[in-house]
Write a structure and sequence with these properties.
two-stranded antiparallel ribbon, 3-stranded mixed β-sheet, mainly alpha
């Protein structure tokens, strides 16, 4: 079949719609386990979706990795796939939807749930260690890790530490654990990606931080 940019764009749009619908279902079920309203689920998902398009620059580092692979000319001409020119430097940014929203919601749960500081530190520490151990920098992609390992660990540690508040503790441990272990601790590895921008939580609703928190709640 000849290459069709419109067909590719249609398939991508359909896939994004499917994933968003599935994730909204996950968010709704997770919120029920956390005892929060559907209205709160809408607000959180909306904040994540809107925030996923906002990146706040932190600093720049000189890249030591090879430039990421060049896209086929047919895709490179499409606005959706246009890349920022790589000049040998990587700008580190933090994504609002993929990192700051889960962080803010974790702080909200800490303030409104009877969970001790020891339980929070223990859950976050264990998940951080596991996330760092299983994550790897992938040139042209970012920091990659198996998606279900961290949520399982977060759910298990929450069950052991505080069964009554296991859902909230699983979300806090999963979200902050991945943020610290797979993103913040690996900031030194971002210079090896060979990319103009490296984003903490850059995938928004599709980022490991966001997904880990809610999958951990479902498993808890």
């Amino acid at each position: 079949m000849p290459f069709s940019p419109f067909r590719i764009l249609f398939l991508i749009a359909a896939l994004i719609l499917l994933v968003v619908v599935v994730q909204f279902g996950i968010v709704s079920v997770a919120f029920e386990k956390l005892g929060l309203s559907d209205h709160s689920a809408y607000l959180l998902l909306l904040g994540t979706l809107l925030g996923s398009s906002i990146n706040l620059p932190l600093y720049s580092v000189r890249s030591e990795g090879a430039p990421s692979p060049v896209l086929p000319p047919e895709l490179a001409r499409l606005p959706l796939f246009r890349k920022i020119p790589f000049t040998g430097k990587t700008t580190v940014v933090v994504n609002v939807g993929g990192a700051l929203v889960p962080l803010a919601f974790s702080l909200y749960l800490m303030a409104h749930r009877p969970i001790s500081p020891f339980e929070i530190l223990a859950a976050v520490g264990v998940v951080s260690f596991v996330a760092h151990a299983i994550s790897r920098p992938v040139p042209g992609v970012g920091i990659a890790m198996p998606i279900f390992v961290a949520p399982i660990v977060a759910a298990l540690i929450a069950w052991m530490l505080n069964p009554e508040q296991r859902a909230a503790l699983a979300y806090i441990g999963g979200s902050l654990g991945v943020l610290i272990g797979a993103d913040l601790v690996r900031l030194k590895d971002l210079k090896m990606l060979g990319a103009p921008i490296a984003s903490i939580g850059g995938a928004g609703t599709f980022d490991g931080i966001f997904i880990t928190g809610f999958v951990a709640v479902l498993l808890a």
